[in-house]
Amino acid sequence: EQLLKVQEVDSQAIFLRESLRLRPRELDDDRRKVADLNAALEAILAQLKRKKMDAAEREVDVKKCDGEIEKMKVALNQAKSNSEYTIYKEQIKKQEEVRGKVEDDVLGMFGEMDAFEVKRKDIAARLDAAGTTLQRKEAEVNQLVKGISEQIAALEARRGGLLQGIDPENLKLYERVLARHNNFALARVDGQVCQG
Question: Which member of 29, 51, 112, 169 has the greatest number of CB atoms within 10 A?
Answer without folding.
Answer: 51
